[in-house]
């Protein structure tokens, strides 16, 4: 296991859709260990594999004292009439938080390292995390979801940080 360095905005790996995991081998097991160790730090809610430079569909979470992971996650359900619009941040966009609209509830399905089905669901912060991490795996950042005026302000702040 290793605490891995977080890739930041501007790194092309963050804009590249991740590949599905087809073989669960020692490399994937090591990736899961690294995701779990790296997310297990104060203030970290979730971590996608591409945020540590690995273009595979996997992420970990650290919400309400529960740490977990899922391989090949896909959102299978989310609330269509209840939303949240609180501030959202990202380890790959350090220090910046902007109001981001997300579904109030989300459900993700995938597998674990034994190939067994995994279902993760939640409301509020957990739902936000599930949606945020699945976006990462699709090569998207939360900045892409911001309303036009807020996005302009966010991109200016990002440029000032680089």
Q: Topology, pairings included?
A:
Blueprint lengths: L25 H14 L6 E3 L9 E6 L2 E13 L4 E2 L2 E4 L2 E7 L2 E2 L1 E7 L5 E7 H14 L10 H14 L1
Antiparallel strand pairs: 1-2, 2-3, 3-8, 4-7, 5-6, 8-9
- Number of distinct beta strands: 9
Low-confidence stretches: none
Number of helices: 3
Percentage of residues in DSSP E strands: 25-35%
Distance between the termini: 30 Å
Structural category is alpha+beta
- What value does the average pLDDT take? 96
| Sheet with the most strands: spatial strand order | 1-2-3-8-9
How many strands, which pairing sense, and closed or not: the largest β-sheet? 5 strands, antiparallel
**Which H/E pattern describes the elements?**
HEEEEEEEEEHH
Radius of gyration: 15 Å
The gross shape turns out to be: globular
Fraction in helix? 25-40%
Binding site for Fe cation: 90, 132, 136
InterPro entries: Peptide_deformylase (IPR023635), Peptide_deformylase_sf (IPR036821)
GO molecular function: peptide deformylase activity
EC number: 3.5.1.88
């Amino acid at each position: 296991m290793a605490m891995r360095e977080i890739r930041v905005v501007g790194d092309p790996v963050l804009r590249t859709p991740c590949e599905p995991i087809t073989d669960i081998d020692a490399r994937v097991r090591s990736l899961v260990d690294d995701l779990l160790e790296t997310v297990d730090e104060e203030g970290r809610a979730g971590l996608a594999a591409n945020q540590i430079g690995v273009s595979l569909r996997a992420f970990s979470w650290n919400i309400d004292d529960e740490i977990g992971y899922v391989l090949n996650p896909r959102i299978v359900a989310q609330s269509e009439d209840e939303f949240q619009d609180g501030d959202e941040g990202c380890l790959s966009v350090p220090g910046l938080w902007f109001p981001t609209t997300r579904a109030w509830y989300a459900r993700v399905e995938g597998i674990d390292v034994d190939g067994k089905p995994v279902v993760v669901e939640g409301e509020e912060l957990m739902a936000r995390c599930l949606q945020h991490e699945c976006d990462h795996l699709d090569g998207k950042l939360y900045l892409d979801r911001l309303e036009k005026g807020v996005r302009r302000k966010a991109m200016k702040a990002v440029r000032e940080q680089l």
